[in-house]
Amino acid sequence: MLLAFALTRPAACLEISLKTLNRYLLKQVIASLVMTVVVFTFVLLLGNVVKELLPLLASRQATFGILAQATGLSGLSHCRSGC
After folding, report:
1. What's residue 76's pLDDT?
2. d(CA 83, CA 81)
3. What is the pLDDT of residues 7-19, one digit of tens each?
4. Is residue 78 pLDDT above 90, yes or no?
5. pLDDT in tens, 16-66
């Protein structure tokens, strides 16, 4: 059915629709690539942060609450009371 539809359309329209399809696919691939790089980078950085913070927790030099505040994980708790 697609072939029959494509044969009845002029070549210029077919070329425009292929450009549109290529542009759409390129956007999707680039978006997936960017999201993958961001997630991969976050996981690698998080591993390094945890590796540096675990000795502080194990030796009881710092509590989890202090480390959460230092890394910004508890920043949202202040907004719950009314920012």
Report:
1. 54
2. 7
3. 565 656 666 777 8
4. no
5. 777 888 888 889 999 999 999 999 999 898 888 888 888 888 888 888 888
Extract the tokens encoding 69. 């505040």
Side-chain-side CA neighbours of residue 13 (13 Å):
6
Q: What is the DSSP string of 4-56?
A: HHHHHS-HHHHHHHHHHHHHHHHHHHHHHHHHHHHHHHHHHHHHHHHHHHHHH
The token pair that represents 36 in the structure block = 């993958």
Q: Which residues of 10-46 are buried (b: 16+ CB within 10 A; e: fewer)?
A: eeeeeeeeeeeeeeeeeeeeeeeeeeeeeeeeeeeee
Contact of 15 with 6, CB cutoff 8 Å = no
Q: At what angle do helices 11-58 and 64-71 cross, to 10 degrees?
A: 140
